[in-house]
């Protein structure tokens, strides 16, 4: 067969074609990322992301799976800022390549060098880390001060006895007042609760307050307009407890004091929630951190256009990979602080305050009314009259990884030659002397103790303090 005289020449991409291919790939990736983000933002709009069950065991893929989550992720809170940053970065890149002549490009490069030297003076790591630490501490304090009426409801059900309608009315009214006071504060600090109860009439229609109580509350607010009367329902609850004591429904003053003490404790937690909303992190500190982060990356738009460590070829980078890593870390931390600064909003990781309201009122009525005085018949358990108790295990629990608990020094064996008892007549200075001992005094005492102990062993001196050789 005749062979062809035409040699095969592989196709080589030009620099322009390669550059366009990279830009097209980045553009498609950004478009897919936007579509992915909007899909999950529309169809997954719940709050408080829970992932504890996903990392119950430490495996190779435990945290890798967490990186694929969208709701509450760092990708969701920074992707808009990231797209704006990339848009500005490539705009400057294209301007440098296609809109500037050689002298202007050299000036552009010199400005980039100037900005690269200036960004080192921004202490972004220290400022941002301290700010996030303060915000996270306040976030957890807010959660610890959320009102949970389970304890006071159990106390009310235990101390106010009676199956008649009057006793039932007192118990239900007390827990309703306690939940109403917390709802007053949550309605004023949470946008989610405010949207659910925009007016006081919505509280009436929801059963948290009656028409008569609402008129009394409005009259008190008008009379004392300079005071925040979120605690007014708690004052009603205290008065009702005192009335129940007068009626003889509280057996002892100890029970009465315990109920009053628990109501005042709840008043303190609700007041702390209001105070944390009243006195936030100083605005000037928030502004300083925000300006520092965004100024840093505005400078990076120019300073990261080139590899300043290489020779001056004026060849700009195609994709700012390490700059985007920095952007993810720093802007991600700033966004974390923005999410945690008000945990009663509507972000993914904000508190489920509407669920807490429903849960608290439901649990309160269950404890003091529906489950009041309900008790199953008392019978002998399956271990009755048995000496040893052994609970059965499932197949997943067989061959446990950990042995039964045993104190750390319980199995330590002391050698026999160190167990013999010796005696010493040394009195340690400083036991009764109140003055502060110097290092020289301590060394002298230790040397004296050793010398006396050796002499006591050799000459069988008088025994005062039994000790071991160690």
UniProtKB/TrEMBL annotation:
Localisation per UniProt entry: Cell membrane; Membrane
Against InterPro entries, the record matches this protein to: Bestrophin, Bestrophin-like
Establish whether keyword Manganese is in the entry: no
Tell me a Gene Ontology molecular-function term this record carries.
chloride channel activity
Q: Does the keyword ATP-binding apply?
A: no
Name the coiled-coil region(s).
none
The alphabetical list of record keywords is: Cell membrane, Chloride, Chloride channel, Ion channel, Ion transport, Membrane, Transmembrane, Transmembrane helix, Transport
Xref: Pfam families: Bestrophin
What kind of membrane protein is this, topologically? Multi-pass membrane protein
- Looking at the UniProt entry, the stretches that span the membrane are 20-39, 283-304, 316-334
- Stated family: Belongs to the anion channel-forming bestrophin (TC 1.A.46) family. Calcium-sensitive chloride channel subfamily.
Function, in words: Forms chloride channels.
Name recorded for this polypeptide:
Bestrophin homolog
Q: Which species is listed as the source?
A: Trichinella papuae
């Amino acid at each position: 067969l005749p062979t062809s005289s035409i040699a095969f020449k592989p196709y080589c991409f030009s620099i322009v074609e390669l550059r366009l291919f990279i830009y097209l790939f980045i553009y498609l990736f950004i478009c897919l990322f936007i579509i992915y983000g909007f899909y999950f933002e529309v169809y997954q709009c719940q709050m408080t992301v829970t992932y504890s069950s996903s990392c119950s065991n430490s495996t190779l893929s435990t945290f890798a799976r967490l990186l694929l989550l969208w709701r509450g992720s760092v990708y969701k809170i920074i992707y808009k800022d990231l797209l704006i940053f990339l848009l500005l970065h490539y705009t400057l890149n294209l301007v440098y390549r296609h809109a500037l002549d050689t002298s202007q490009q050299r000036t552009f490069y010199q400005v980039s060098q100037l900005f690269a030297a200036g960004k080192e003076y921004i202490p972004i790591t220290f400022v941002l880390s301290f700010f996030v630490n303060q915000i996270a501490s306040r976030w957890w304090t807010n959660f610890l001060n959320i009102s949970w009426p389970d304890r006071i409801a159990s106390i009310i059900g235990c101390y106010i006895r009676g199956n008649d309608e009057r006793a039932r009315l007192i118990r239900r009214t007390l827990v309703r007042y306690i939940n109403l006071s917390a709802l007053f504060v949550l309605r004023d600090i949470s946008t989610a609760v405010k949207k659910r109860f925009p007016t006081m009439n919505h509280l009436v229609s929801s059963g948290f307050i009656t028409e008569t109580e609402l008129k009394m509350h409005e009259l008190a607010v008008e009379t004392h307009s300079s005071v925040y009367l979120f605690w007014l329902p708690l004052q009603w609850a205290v008065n009702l407890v005192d009335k129940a004591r007068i009626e003889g429904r509280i057996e002892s003053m100890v029970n009465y004091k315990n109920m009053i003490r628990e109501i005042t404790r709840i008043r303190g937690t609700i007041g702390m929630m209001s105070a944390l909303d009243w006195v936030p992190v100083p605005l000037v500190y928030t502004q300083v951190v925000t300006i520092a982060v965004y100024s840093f990356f505005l400078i990076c738009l120019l300073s990261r256009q080139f590899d300043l460590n290489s020779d001056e070829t004026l060849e700009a980078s195609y994709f700012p990979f390490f700059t985007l890593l920095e952007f993810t870390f720093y802007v991600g931390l700033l966004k974390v602080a923005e999410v945690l600064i008000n945990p009663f909003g509507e972000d993914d990781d904000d508190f489920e305050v509407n669920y807490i309201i429903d849960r608290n009122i439901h649990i309160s009525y269950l404890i003091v009314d529906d489950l009041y005085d309900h008790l199953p018949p008392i019978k002998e358990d399956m271990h009755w009259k048995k000496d040893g108790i052994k609970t059965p295990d499932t197949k997943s629990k067989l061959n446990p990884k950990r042995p039964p608990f045993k104190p750390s020094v319980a199995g330590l064996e002391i050698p026999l030659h160190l167990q013999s008892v010796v005696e010493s007549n040394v009195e340690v200075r400083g036991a009764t002397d109140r003055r502060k001992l110097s290092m020289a005094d301590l060394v002298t005492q230790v040397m004296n103790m050793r010398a006396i102990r050796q002499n006591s062993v050799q000459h069988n001196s008088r025994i005062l303090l039994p000790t071991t050789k160690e």
